[in-house]
Amino acid sequence: MTSTRRPALFTGFWCLVNRQARRILGRSQANSGDPFVRTMDGHSPRKPIAARYLGHGHAAASPIQPNAVVCLAGSPESVADLLPTPQDARDHARMWTLRNTIRRTAMPQRRALTAAAIAQGKVPIDNLFVTSTELNKKTAPVLIGLANTLEQKFAKVGYFRPIQPSADSSMADHHVEVMKQQLGLNKEVSQLYGVTSERAIESWLNGREDDLVEEILDRFEQCREGHDFMIIEGSQISKHESAMSWKINVDIAKAIGSPVLTISDFSESANTNGELLEEILSRTALNKDQVEDAGLTFIGNIANRVNTKDPQALRAALRPKMDEKDLPFLGFLPNDDFIASKRLNEVTHQLGATQLFGTKAIPNNVVVTSAVVATSALKDLFSHLKNYKDGALVITSADRSDIMLGLMASRLPGILPNVSAIVLTNGSYPHSNTQEILKGVEALDKTGLSIPIFSVPEDTFTTADKFSKVSTDILPTSQLKIDRSKQLFDEFVEKENLIGELDEGMVVNRSPKQFQHFLFSKSRAVQRHIVLTEGEDIRVLQAADQVLRQNLSKVTILGNPEDIQRHAKSLNLDLSRANIVRTAESELLEKRHASEP
């Protein structure tokens, strides 16, 4: 029967982890006889084979180096009796190289963590986990303003997103691209996030959440190199799984050891200051309890998209109430019509439109107020447009030359509202004669007649439906919205309080996962070679699979290759990178017996 219990890597490696953990936490050391790898009884031929591997390579595809890490049951002195040559005896001392290396490299961190844990002192904050408490992706203004503020304090501010919403997800946005541009990061977009939301959900549902967090931690460590401070953006990875999103964000924040700044959306809340005041207080308190109950440090809450007619009065009323309830007061961002507006560059980007005519750079200051489907006669369209405001986007077919030319001509009298753009459906182009006229008008753009014309591959109905779902995301090209976000953050967010909370530091609260990641990172850096002597033990094979999957070391397994591969296949284990040696037929065993008197 296959065990469903999760393997503890392998007996020996966890011995190393436990010993290191006990040292760091100030507990008693493990017994000196605890093995890295348990073997059969003393008469098993695998003991001399494993011991022999310490000093000799093997004629295999993956030769075992002289510094391989092997420990047999019992003390080091008892193992020395199995070493046939003085050279092996010298190599025997290398059995402890991995542990000693970790001990040396971990010394500064271990001392700092131990001292902080005993004194309950605070350590400087060099990262901040920012996450929304609602299913909402309109948090870009807060991120932009936060980045701008932190750059005034820290020389090199970085950005990392543990889970990036998949491109086809309803939660897809452009936060990574915007933050890359705003912070001047020289990394590729793919280097600024851990995994996609699709990958995260799959790992979570398959019970591999530990592997998921470990992979994200690796990516974070690579991303943070060279930065004084890191902004870490939590994500709502699925509109159907908000509880799972919160749990994953908590696990990641714990693993990184990051304090949390929450963002609450108030776009659908009351617009009277009295009701807003109470709701901001209650939701901030709720967020604080939720974060601290998860074992994390709460920095504060920023209320986003607050509908208030008098933001200054609300701000003045909030401050004493927050102090009264002992809540950090970080301010809010009011709902802003400019940021909420749809811009032509954002609309065409989300429609996947290709520009045919007009100025080469799609202007980011052109507001799109509505969409009009033009299928009727030109005179009917003109009558219909009179009911719209400036900024209407006209969707029509490429064979309607009359509409394209008529809309341009209508600009002269200034009777009709200005049209922001024309979108042609079905991927078609205008008639050649019409194209010549459009190019001529484009060349004489000083006339003011030119209208940007785009083409989309979808039909008219699909295009109109996509327009109705266009969100007001901020793109890297949305410079006016970016500037407005910084302005609002400077005006309404209590930057001094925010920086003060960061300067206060935080009490060290290292999680087991964070400590485990620290040890694993050191193990990967050392990259030793481990020999497992009980290849028929399913737990050993499960441990080998996990070690190889996490790239902790090279692995050699002693045993029958056919049996081992059969077990691996039945357990869905990947041992393709393991070196499997059949002990009974090994030439080293023959040499050992030949050397015995």
UniProtKB/TrEMBL annotation:
TM stretches of this protein: none
Keyword Electron transport: no
Keywords on record: Acyltransferase, Transferase
Ranges for domain DRTGG: 346-467
A Pfam family that the UniProt record links to this protein: DRTGG
GO molecular function per UniProt: acyltransferase activity
Residues covered by the Phosphate acetyl/butaryl transferase domain: 517-591
PANTHER family in the cross-refs: PHOSPHATE ACETYLTRANSFERASE
Protein name (record): Unnamed protein product
